[in-house]
Amino acid sequence: MVEIIADHPAELVRTDSPNFLCSVLPSHWRCNKTLPVAFKVVALGDVPDGTVVTVMAGNDENYSAELRNASAVMKNQVARFNDLRFVGRSGRGKSFTLTITVFTNPTQVATYHRAIKVTVDGPREPRRHRQKLEDQTKPFPDRFGDLERLRMRVTPSTPSPRGSISTTSHYSSHYSSQAQTPIQ
User: Fold this and answer.
1) Which pLDDT tens digit goes with each residue over 75-120?
2) What is the number of domains present in the chain?
3) Rg of the Cα trace of the chain?
4) CA triple 67-71-74, angle to 5 deg
5) Which residue range(s) make up the domain with 113?
6) Angle CA 136–137–140, to nearest 5
7) 103: which residues sit within 8 A by CB, 6+ positions away?
8) Do residues 45 and 21 touch, judged by C-beta distance below 8 A?
9) pLDDT above 90 for 2
C-alpha cells in the first residue's frame, strides 16, 4: 500500500479499510458540477473484474445525499467512476463522509471521512474579502453618494440654451388654463 501511495502521492488517499484506496477529492466543491478528475477506488487485495462498486455520501444533516453516476465496475483492481456528481449539499461548514461498497462475497465496505464539502456556489472568496477586491479594481467610484457630491460641486455657470423644463411658454399656459376649466 505504501508503494502505491508513493507512486500516486496527490491522487490517492487511504480509507478506513486496509483493502481500499480512493481518489483525493477537493475539500470544497459546487453541487452538480463535474469533479476535476475521475473518482477511482483501488483494491489492494484480489477483487474480480466485473464486481460492482457503489459510493454513497452523507453526514448528520443529510444522511443520504443525492449522487449521480455513483456506481462503477471493477477492472484490473480499479473502479473508475465516470462523471461522479454530488447533487445533494453537505450543509454550511459540513463535509460528507463517503461510504464505498464493494459487492464481493462477502460485501466489503470502506469509508472516506470528511471527504468533501458541497455547497450551492462552491468554493469562493469570503464576502468581505471579495468586496474589497472589487473596489480596488474599479477605476471610477460608482457609489451614489460619490456621484451626488460630484454633481453638487459641478454646477453649470451659464443658463442652458434650451431653457428649463419648468419655464412656461404660450402652449403650456394655454393647456394648463384649459385643464383648470370645469366641463359642463
Assistant:
1) 999 999 999 998 988 888 888 999 999 999 999 999 999 888 888 8
2) 1
3) 33
4) 150
5) 2-119
6) 90
7) 51, 52, 53, 54
8) no
9) no
